[in-house]
Each structure stands twice: as structure tokens, then as C-alpha cells.
């Protein structure tokens, strides 16, 4: 069995609405697709200890993250009858209101697209080595964790 190429998943800065729209538009020519499921992760302006988050600065061990994402991607393709799958995650600073994660799955029927997309998002959050540093309005920061808990620095 031929090994599939590891896809690049990182985008510098925020993922633009135009990029998302263009990705969706490109699938209109694929006539066997009956459903798409899309997850967009947007940076919130959480309030923590009386400070407001204004941005998140994302970093990753890129090579390891892309290898792990490849493993998750292949497992998801094997588990669900997906036609297409696209995953993009921001690196660098993403301001409140901007998109930092874009997961897009397509299939013949909606159940596979929805369940595959949901599983991808959960596994990315739990397994892929990507870190977020919450930046506050006073320029202080803390590292974000995926369990809605942060480590104060």
C-alpha cells in the first residue's frame, strides 16, 4: 500500500473568511458529494481574573503536529465514508473574532460528514501538539489548555 503524503495544516495568522468560502466553492463541481460539515474555531474574548483576552498566539512542534494530524486523518478516512477532508490551523497571533481552526469534511451522506468532522475536532484538540498563549489587553499572557483551564505565568 502506497504511503500518502503528509499534508501541511498550518496557516500563518488568522484563516480568512475568503479562504473558507473559496474552499467551499471549489467543491461545487464534485457531483457525488451530498453533504459537507464545517467546523470553524473562533478566538473568544474570555474574561479571566478581570482581564480580557484580546488574541491567542499559537505555536506548534510543526513536524510532529503534521505527522499526528496525518495519523488522525487516515484513521478518520478509514472509519467514515468521507469523500474529502481539509484541515487548517493557525500559527502565530489570531485576534478575537478571527478563525484559528477550519475543519471541512465531505461525504455522500450527512451522517459521515458530521460525525467525521466532530471526531476530527475532538482528536485535534486532544492529540495534536499545538499550544495557545492567551494575550490580555494589558499585554500579559497565560498558556491556554484544552480543558478550559489555563496555567498562569
Order of helices and strands: EHEEEHEEHEEE
Largest sheet, described in full? 9 strands, mixed
Q: Please give the count of helices.
A: 3
User: What would you report as the Rg, rounded to the nearest angstrom?
Assistant: 16 Å
CATH fold name, please?
A: Aldehyde Oxidoreductase, domain 3
Q: What is the subunit organization of this protein?
A: single chain
Count of the separate structural domains: 1
Describe this structure in words.
The chain is α+β, with helices and mostly antiparallel strands. It has one domain (10-22, 32-144): Aldehyde Oxidoreductase, domain 3 (Alpha-Beta Complex). 29% of the residues lie in helices and 39% in strands. The chain has helices spanning 17-25, 62-79, 110-127; strands spanning 10-12, 35-42, 47-48, 51-60, 82-95, 99-107, 130-136, 141-144, 150-152. Strands 1, 2, 3, 4, 5, 6, 7, 8 and 9 form a 9-stranded mixed beta sheet that branches. Helix 2 (62-79) packs antiparallel against helix 3. It starts with 9 loop residues before the first strand and ends with a strand.
Amino acid at each position: 500500500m502506497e504511503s500518502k503524503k503528509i499534508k501541511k495544516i498550518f496557516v500563518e495568522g488568522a484563516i480568512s473568511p475568503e479562504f473558507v468560502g473559496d474552499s467551499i466553492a471549489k467543491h461545487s463541481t464534485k457531483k457525488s458529494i451530498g453533504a459537507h460539515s464545517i467546523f470553524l474555531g473562533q478566538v473568544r474574548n474570555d474574561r479571566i481574573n478581570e482581564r480580557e483576552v484580546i488574541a491567542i498566539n499559537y505555536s506548534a512542534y510543526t513536524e510532529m503536529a503534521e505527522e499526528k494530524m496525518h495519523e488522525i486523518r487516515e484513521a478518520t478516512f478509514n472509519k467514515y465514508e468521507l469523500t474529502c477532508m481539509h484541515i487548517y490551523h493557525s500559527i502565530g497571533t489570531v485576534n478575537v473574532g478571527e478563525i484559528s481552526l477550519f475543519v471541512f469534511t465531505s461525504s455522500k451522506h450527512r451522517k459521515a460528514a458530521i460525525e467525521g468532522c466532530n471526531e476530527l475536532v475532538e482528536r485535534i484538540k486532544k492529540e495534536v501538539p499545538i499550544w495557545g498563549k492567551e494575550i490580555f489587553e494589558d499585554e500579559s499572557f497565560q498558556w491556554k489548555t484544552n480543558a478550559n483551564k489555563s496555567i498562569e505565568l
